[in-house]
Write a structure and sequence with these properties.
The structure holds two protein chains of two kinds. By secondary structure, chain A is of the alpha/beta class. Chain A contains ten helices and ten strands. Chain B is 82% helix and 2% strand. The chains are: A alpha/beta, B mainly alpha.
Chain lengths: 262, 283
């Protein structure tokens, strides 16, 4: 489990000040039919920084991640990656930008017809065609070792636990050395020990790779450990954004209630 | 307020009891909904087709996945279409022999069998069998990938799912259907001849020479290659239904069923147009 010492180190490593934001979301609106999910949300994350997005179910946290990676299109507002607005980008250009991002789905979304190794090798096979088979296998082994899944190369996703699937999903998200890591509920549905292991893993990756990360979670404890900044969403808007201490000192009724119930 | 309260139907002057207007309005709303749904479905199919076409003609090409799909659609459908062809050959042989005997035209048996199998039954039977096997399989596979976010994961990995999943499957169907049709035709002719020989011995050489006597390529090739269009229909409908699925396991089931039903229906409708087209341009 991550300790107070880990948290202290994480804070020291926090976002490099003065850096332009790697991910910037401005006045983003998204509705599905009559249901408004995001209502003018603005956020930004810099290199080496981790932002945890919290909120009640259905407040658009996962939709926010899907908008950032371009799986959904916003109704209005903008998403910029390194200052490049994603609106109206051709598919190929969008593909180039997605190469800079790693996405861990809430369900891990592993390809069920491929082995664990096949899942991690999948992005490499498509985007690192210059790699030999041996190089690719070596890289896959290294990535799996990084997430503590060495020795599971030939297992099928259905043969491993939910926590292990999340680790494999994380290894797959890291395969192309992304600059941005988007994590959708990385600890959801896991027991406290597995959650703690995933938190430690995320902390370790932040130290080693210095990515800009956005973590969507319900788990306040996990968010406190892995994030430099936290944002709480309610009714499609950011209610508060800041450090955990800022949240604790907030007088906003919703924030108080959220912290109390978490 | 009573149910018999009089209300005015929009734009009409006579006042009708609500008991009457409510069901009428419901029927009208359902009709409008169906009408909109019909055009929406075709509109989305058009957009999907365009995205697949654009992905298919631009690199990188997914050769490995295409080969896997050629095997999936071709080799794995071969036993099924061969058996269907064999059964059809026997049925046509028995029916044709009986009918031709009644009209004293038994000598026409080989040509009747050859033309019936190659021009009519072979392509349609192959199309329907492949539609059942491949359409359901593809529809269910892609639908399952969709509801478990695997297609989103492919897209998030900067890989175009239209290129990787749809274009390869549709192309495999287009390429394999004519070949499978040839296999169906071959099996049907073999078993048709065999069934005839059991009743009245006829050498295979004589059967083939009589059957194909005076035949030109135009008589058979367009009928065989029209199945490429069936392949397009089967692949396109299955991929479209699969990749737009929503709603968990029930959605997967619906996608598989709809893929088979719609592909079979459009295949038969397309046959009407294709037969006319072939008669006009190749006869």
């Amino acid at each position: 489990m991550a300790t107070t010492h880990d948290i202290a180190i994480k804070r020291e490593d926090a976002g490099e000040e003065g850096n332009a934001p790697v991910v910037a979301v401005e006045n983003l609106h998204k509705a599905f039919g009559n249901l408004t999910v995001l209502n003018g949300i603005s956020l930004s994350v810099g290199r080496g920084e981790t932002l945890a997005v919290l909120g009640r179910s259905g407040t658009g946290k996962s939709v926010l991640l899907r908008l950032i990676i371009g799986l959904e299109k916003p109704d209005s507002g903008s998403v910029s990656i390194h200052g490049q607005d994603l609106a109206g980008l051709a598919l190929d250009r969008m593909g180039e930008i997605r190469l800079k991002m790693g996405f861990l789905f809430q369900s891990a979304a592993l390809y069920d017809s491929l082995t664990v190794g096949g899942n991690v090798a999948f992005p490499l096979e498509h985007h690192r065609r210059d790699m030999s088979r041996a190089e690719r296998t070596g890289r896959v082994r290294k990535l799996l070792a990084e997430v503590g899944m060495e020795g599971n190369l030939d297992k099928m996703p259905s043969d491993i636990s939910g926590g292990m699937q999340k680790r494999v999903g994380l290894a797959r998200a890291l395969a192309l050395d992304p600059e941005i890591l988007l994590l959708d509920e990385p600890t959801a549905g896991l027991d406290p020990i597995s959650s703690g292991e995933i938190d430690e893993l995320i902390l370790k990756l932040q130290r080693e790779r210095r990515m800009a990360s956005i973590v969507v979670t319900h788990d306040l404890h996990s968010a406190r450990i892995i994030a430099n900044r936290l944002a709480i969403l309610d009714q499609g808007n950011v209610v508060i954004e800041g450090s955990f201490e800022d949240l604790q000192q907030s007088e906003i009724a919703f924030v108080k209630e959220f912290l109390k119930q978490s | 307020m009573s149910d018999l309260e009089l209300t005015s139907v929009a734009g009409s002057s006579p006042l009708l009891p609500r008991q009457v207007t409510a069901p009428v309005r419901s029927v009208v709303d359902s009709g409008i909904g169906l009408f909109n749904g019909f055009f929406e479905w075709f509109g989305n199919l058009g957009i999907f087709s365009w995205q697949v076409l654009r992905a298919a003609v631009t690199p990188p090409y997914e050769w490995r996945e295409l080969i896997r799909q050629l095997d999936e659609v071709g080799s794995k459908s071969l036993p099924l279409v061969a058996m269907a062809g064999a059964a059809i050959g026997v049925v046509i042989s028995l029916e044709a022999r009986y009918s031709l005997s009644r009209f004293g035209a038994k000598s026409m048996f080989p040509a009747t069998l050859v033309y019936t199998v190659i021009q009519v039954m072979g392509p349609v039977i192959t199309g329907l069998v492949v539609s059942g096997r491949v359409g359901a399989g593809m529809g269910a596979e892609l639908a399952s990938m969709k509801v478990t976010e695997q297609i989103d994961a492919i897209e998030a990995s900067a890989i175009n799912p239209y290129r990787l999943l749809a274009a390869t499957r549709i192309l495999a169907c287009i390429l394999m259907l004519p070949l499978l049709t040839v296999a169906t035709d071959g099996c049907a002719l073999m078993t048709g001849w065999f069934a005839q020989t059991m009743v009245e011995p006829l050498s295979f050489h004589q059967f083939i020479s009589n059957g194909f006597h005076g035949a030109t390529f135009n008589a058979f090739l367009p009928q065989t290659f029209k199945t490429a269009v069936y392949g397009l229909i089967i692949g396109l409908i299955a991929c479209f239904q699969g990749m737009r699925t929503r709603g968990g396991a029930a959605g997967v089931g619906r996608a598989a069923t709809n893929s088979v039903v719609l592909a079979s229906l459009f295949l038969i409708l397309a046959d009407v147009v294709l037969v006319k087209f072939i008669l006009v341009f190749f006869d």
